[in-house]
Amino acid sequence: MLRDAIQHALDGGRTPPQLLERIQRRWWTHGYARALAEGELSSPVGVAVGLVRPSMDCPDPMCEDGTTLHLNDACPKCAERRADHRHQRLMPAQRQGHPQPQWWECNGQDCQASGKGPQPEDGLCQHCRNRAEQTKIQHATAGLIAKAETAQKAEQLRQAARWERMLNDAHAEHTERSRSARDQAEAEQHAADQAEEIRRLREQLRREHPELAAYAQQQTS
Question: Hey, is 180 helix, strand or coil?
Answer without folding.
Answer: helix
